[in-house]
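Sorry, explain these tokens?

___
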Amino acid sequence: MKAIIFAGGVGTRLWPLSRRRSPKQFEKVIGEKSTLQLAVERLLPDFAWDDIYIATSSQYEKIVAEQLPKLTSSHIICEPESRDVGPAVGLVSAVLTKIHPREPIAIVWSDHLVRKDALFRKILSESSKIVSQKPNKIIFISQKPRFASQNLGWIKYGKKVGRSNGFELYAFDEFHYRPDLETADKFYKSGNFAWNVGYFVTTPSFLWSLYKRFQPEMFSLLEEIHRAYGKPNFKRVLKEIYPKLSKISFDNAILEKITTNDAMVISENLEWSDVGAWEALKEALQSTPDQNVIQGKVLVTDCQDSLIYNYTNQMVVTIDLNGFLVINTHDVVLICHKNSVPKIKKLVENLARSENDHLV
């Protein structure tokens, strides 16, 4: 089995730590290692280094190599420019179909926290066995919901269709992306919805066939890249063809179009969290809602439910804060209420169009 870890996003919701030059997945968000390094460690030792691939942007190839020195350089699959996740997954399928067409692959992401590592690896192992027997299937690995989240995607599943080494397999039904609070509450209480965390197991050849079925124009361009892979002209062809691919999310390109016959669902409590935004990071690391989450040289007095991260040698002192975020980097200090996090993305967009573009 091979694992492909996607590590190409910019991550504006974790600004000012996450920047264009060094996005969130390469920064020390949890402890002393980047979330990319933690994502790789989560797979070891069940996966060998030769089983792991990183999908990223060409501008981050050097960072990936530095953070993962044991990774073979040919296992870093680089987009020459960002075209959204639809083309990025298409590029991976074009490459892996050439070298491991029928070997199960796991698609995972570099900016998540999974506390139950052993359970996660066990699910991957069982999914691999199932896909080996049913190579024209996708198995979605989902998180049992902890609350009625409006900020996550949800996956609806149907009747039980099997059982494998203690894991229930359900029929896939449909996806729902970021519902309103009332709808999210219904999903949470229904018993047949889970958080869609974006992890799945399939074969490269089946993933490749989905692009041919649902994105024929993109597929024709990806075929040129596929044919060139492993040849001397590959980098030239990739640089020439890839920018022609339409910008589209993987959800819109593929997932929203698959049928119940294409997929199955496993829903378990992985203690998974998306740590791609400051308030989500706090929720993932806190023991109780009122707890402060702190990193670096920080001194708090009469504060609660706050996240204070200090990436400098200067002491940060906070008094009487309730529900606040304080992020101190070498050139920016961000202070806002945790409910204001959605405004960060718009702020960063405005900075990119101003004399402060260097801060983005």
Observations:
- The chain has a mean pLDDT of 94.
- DSSP finds eleven helices and 17 strands in the chain.
- The first strand starts at residue 2 and ends at 6.
